[in-house]
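User: My instructor asked us to take a sequence, write out its structure as tokens, and then describe one feature of it. I'm not sure where to start. Here is the sequence I was given:
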Amino acid sequence: MILKIRKIKIIIFLILLVCLETNAQKISIMASYSQADLFYSPGLEANYFYNEKLGLELGFSTFLFNYKPNQMVNQAPTEFYNTFFYNGNIGLCGDFLHYKMFKLRWTGGLKIYHGPDFIPLHFYEEGGYFIYFDSSGTDLVGNNFDQGLDLGLLFHLHKLIIGLKYDTARYQKRFLLGWSF
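Assistant: Let's start with the prediction itself. The structure tokens for your sequence are:
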């Protein structure tokens, strides 16, 4: 009986928290994640609203290499691929819709990559996998940046943030999960 009362109190407490109206949330911190066959890319993004409708967004991601040497050509040493800075973005963010505890926000800005961009070069039928090529120009010879637009939608439920972003530099999707303060 005590356990049931405790569960009911927790459920009522959570409902009360969610039902509170969202007030002026100035700062949002989000963890981002994207991946492909040969890498994992966790990151961190932050939004700061300097007025009710418009804010500034900054973010960066790291690069963790899923090393498969038999599937690569023009490869650099492994330590080159595991870097702290893989990509960054800067831009603006704003509100599309705000109704009580729900918010739908947009983001848009500049995305810059400094790291490998693996594309399938050839399908190796006997092994059943693709052989990849680093097409970025960020190998040991060149040190180029890829840049494009970074666009996204963020859904706020009270203080919880769930989002999806897409960039035109390398046509990557990123998923975001965060919290507003």
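For the description part of your assignment, you could build on this observation: DSSP finds two helices and eleven strands in the chain. Try explaining in your own words what that tells you about the chain.
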